[in-house]
Amino acid sequence: MKIILFRFEKEKIHFLECILSSWNLVFGDKEKISLESTISRWEKYKKILDELLHIQTKYSPDIFAYQLPQKYRGAIKDEEWFANSAILNLYCYQNNLEILELTPVTVREKLSISNKDFKKLLVDKEKEVLESYTIAKSDKLTDWLIFLFSLKEKF
């Protein structure tokens, strides 16, 4: 199963190609899309849609996955992030693509475990991911990879 993992920032979209099997998680291309050259919001959203089409064509993913920011939920500065993720949801809906929101709540519900067990699982999976793969703990996609790695048996 091929998953494209997205992380939105105000003027950038980071994404990582992940190939997930019950035995392994293989990382493919890691790229970022700059939105700095766009002047209007319409140009920005058009560029996002164009880039999503390009990603879909290039990688043929089974799932697009993303995470809402947890630290600043509801803050005005998160409006850009919300708009970008809304465009991703719209694109997936229009193209009948599966989309997965990676948040602590949705991952814990998919795993059907208690909050205490979930927190322990995340600590264990973080160690496993950082030891097994050549990524830095500070990598912007690390948290999302830990969620994805925790769910790999569910796919």
Q: Which labels suit this protein?
A:
single chain, 155 residues, alpha/beta, five-stranded mixed β-sheet, 5 strands, globular
Secondary-structure topology with pairs:
Blueprint: E1 2-8, E2 12-20, E3 25-34, H1 41-59, E4 63-66, H2 79-94, E5 98-101, H3 104-111, H4 115-132, H5 142-151
Parallel strand pairs: 1-4, 4-5
Antiparallel strand pairs: 1-2, 2-3
Mean pLDDT: 83
Distance between the termini: 8 Å
- How much of the residues is beta strand, in percent? 15-25%
What sort of overall outline do the alpha carbons produce when their principal axes are compared? globular
Tell me the structural class. Answer: alpha/beta
The number of helical segments is 5
Number of strands: 5
- In the sheet with the most strands, the strands line up as 3-2-1-4-5
Q: Could you give the order of the helices and strands?
A: EEEHEHEHHH
Radius of gyration: 16 Å
Q: Tell me roughly what share of residues is in helical segments.
A: 40-55%
Low-confidence stretches: none
Biggest pleated-sheet summary? 5 strands, mixed
Explain this structure:
- This protein has helices spanning 41-59, 79-94, 104-111, 115-132, 142-151, and strands at residues 2-8, 12-20, 25-34, 63-66, 98-101.
- It is α/β, with parallel strands linked by helices.
- It has a five-stranded mixed β-sheet, with helices on both faces.
- Strand 1 and strand 2 (12-20) form a beta hairpin.
- It starts with a strand and ends with a helix.
Quick summary:
The chain is an alpha/beta fold. 46% of the residues lie in helices and 22% in strands.
